[in-house]
Amino acid sequence: MHGSPISLRVGIGHRPACASDRGEFGHWEADSVISVGCHLHTEVERRTRYLKARIIPDKGAAGTIVAQLGIFSPLPAPARRSVTYDNGTEFAGHSTLVEALGMLTYFADPYSSWQRGSNENRNGMLRRYLPKGGRITPDMADELQAIVNEINNRPMRLLGYQTPAEAYQQELLNLPHQPRCCTSI
C-alpha cells in the first residue's frame, strides 16, 4: 500500500498458500472491535475458526501489541505461525510479533474485509452480545470470556459439526505429528 503509515508491511499476496487455503493450523486473522469506553482485540485461527479476544484501553498500537503478546506468547510456535491484519494503524506494532515470537505478519488489501472473513464473522457474533454503541469496561474480562466460550462451543457444519473449541484442541494435540508446508523464520 503506497504511503502506508505501517512500516515493514507485507501484503496478503505474499502469504503462503497453506495459510490462505486453511491447509495448515496456526494462521490467525486479527481485528479490533470498537466500542464506547474500551475496545476489543480479536484473533481467529483460520483453520478451526477458534476465537480469542482481549479488552484493550484504546485503538492504539501499544495496547494492541500487548494484547497480541498475551494471546500468542503461551502458545507453542506451530500454533502461532502468522497473523493477517486489515490496514488499521493499531497494527503498526506488528514487527514486535516477528521479533519476539517469530510470527509472520501480512496485511489484507485495502477495503477487502472478505480477505479476513473468519474474523469478520466472529466479530459479528460478538456484536450480538456487545452491540455497537455499548460500553466495554476493563472489569468485563470474565463476561467477555464467557461470550467467547459460548461462540467457540457452537458446532459448525464446515468443521464436520465439531465446535471450534474441539477442532482447536485437536489441532493442538496433533502438533508434533503435523507436517509443515510453510517455511519458518
From TrEMBL:
This is Transposase IS30. PANTHER family: TRANSPOSASE (PTHR10948), TRANSPOSASE INSI FOR INSERTION SEQUENCE ELEMENT IS30A-RELATED (PTHR10948:SF23). Transmembrane segments: none annotated. Residues 12-172 form the Integrase catalytic domain. It comes from Bifidobacterium subtile. InterPro entries: Integrase_cat-core (IPR001584), RNaseH-like_sf (IPR012337), RNaseH_sf (IPR036397), Transposase-Integrase (IPR051917), Transposase_IS30-like (IPR053392). One of its GO terms (biological process) is DNA integration. GO terms for molecular function: nucleic acid binding; transposase activity. One of its GO terms (cellular component) is cytosol. It comes from the Bacteria.
